[in-house]
Amino acid sequence: MALPKTLRYAVLHVGSSSMSITILEYKGIDDVRVIDYAAREVTFGEELFQTSRLSFKTIEEICHILKGYKQLMADYGVSRSKLYGTTVIREAANRRSILDQIYIQTGMRVEVIDMPKEVYYKYALLYYKMTHQYKLTDPTKATLFLDITSGGVGLTVWRGENLLFQRNMHSGSLRVMESFNRNQRSSISFPRAITEYLHRMIGPLREELQTFNINSIVLSGDEAQYMTHLMGQENNKEDIITIEPERFKGLINSFDGVTATKLMNRYKLPEYKANILMPTMILFNEIITAIEPKSLIFSSFSFSQGISWFYGVETENNPFMYQLREQNAQLARAVAARYHTDRIHDAEVERFSSLFCKALRHKGLPERWGYLCRIAAILCSVGKFVNLRNHGEHAYHIVMGTDIFGLSEEEKQVVANVVYYHYKGTPNDDDAYFNALTELQKIQVTKLVAIIRVACALDAGSNQKISEVTLEERDNVLYVFCRTNEDISLEWWTFDRDSEYFTEIFGMEIVLVRGGDRHVQ
């Protein structure tokens, strides 16, 4: 779907080590032109991990820089923009005050990105470039994207068009360093201690990663660029560089224990940058040692680049978005498999609920809500693994405790509430989980619960009696025509029971009709 005209917009980012603005023109997924880019190195992350908050002086600095960026946008005549905040705002104890002051002083609203979504935007750009443009990965072999930031570590594995694995750890480079005081960091034993610390940190994931037979590991962002410079790749302007693992190991071994002080002395790095780079190098080496990949790929793609590109792709509604969503649905199925759900029943509920969502677009059900409904359908039975009694409660906690790739924290809350209510109970403000939602989220939950319930009813016995379903709306009645040669008494009774809530929410009657010829008696 082509855009009617060139899309010009600005993407601004408040990060732990830099603030930036990117002004772009987007004509298509392969035709994105950066008109201007400006960035300012900052030390907000160091302050955050030391004090858990940002000072008034720092907030004033953020607003001052943003005012300069607003003037730059005005100079280019750009009125369409988005401002994103990552770890440094997301995890600040005084987050509300920061967001309020930014709005008061600049008139700009900050969209705070949680860690899974932060990794997702980088992955989307990296995956597209490597598979569609550079053709760097073998579709028969697995690739690991290792995303190390100041606040966390994301690990994403893909093979061909399939996402195989995604985990996130809230132990990034600065967070690790701030776990030790200055005296400990200056100790001669520190390199060994932090290596053991990081080795233990990735321990639970090591065996699972080894099962994928990973051929390449990709590291992206500023730290990846710094590492290539340390290995002699000076003045390199390539987006992606491939290096032999032995070359990186040679760099690590040359230090006889990597420390921030050694990095500062050998490469004249500032202390703040050395404190970020040191644990990144050690963690990268730990992953390489555990997996033994054939090649290492260093990418310059940053969060700002990822979100800037993604904004245009999403606005265009490029077909690549559907490929990403299918990958995320695969990961949701992998999560469900870990809890031994009924895969065939879940697939039926997903199939039926997708039909309802498409038919109800005109009833205030956007396409994105339909996608959330699919994810909820896949995960609605995970709580049964814990206990069949009150499994909706257990499912809620499993979903909330799982990083679901491609969903924001707010969307995950919607999915968690849908799985909580999918079997019984009515969404109600007396319930703490539902009451904590915004009004828009509550509307999403009620509509998706109504759909999931009638979808589940069509396979109430989990024995796939109904082979085909077609929908038709007439005179504000939604007729559900089903093809079957079996006794569907259970399905009929369950459907009649759950149709009452559906009618209440959508303001239309829903009727199950046996037969696929769309002829209502």
From TrEMBL:
<feature type="domain" description="Ppx/GppA phosphatase N-terminal">
    <location>
        <begin position="38"/>
        <end position="306"/>
    </location>
</feature>
<dbReference type="Pfam" id="PF21447">
    <property type="entry name" value="Ppx-GppA_III"/>
</dbReference>
<comment type="similarity">
    <text>Belongs to the GppA/Ppx family.</text>
</comment>
<feature type="domain" description="Ppx/GppA phosphatase C-terminal">
    <location>
        <begin position="333"/>
        <end position="471"/>
    </location>
</feature>
<dbReference type="InterPro" id="IPR043129">
    <property type="entry name" value="ATPase_NBD"/>
</dbReference>
<dbReference type="Pfam" id="PF02541">
    <property type="entry name" value="Ppx-GppA"/>
</dbReference>
<protein>
    <submittedName>
        <fullName>Phosphatase</fullName>
    </submittedName>
</protein>
<dbReference type="InterPro" id="IPR050273">
    <property type="entry name" value="GppA/Ppx_hydrolase"/>
</dbReference>
<dbReference type="InterPro" id="IPR003695">
    <property type="entry name" value="Ppx_GppA_N"/>
</dbReference>
<dbReference type="InterPro" id="IPR048950">
    <property type="entry name" value="Ppx_GppA_C"/>
</dbReference>
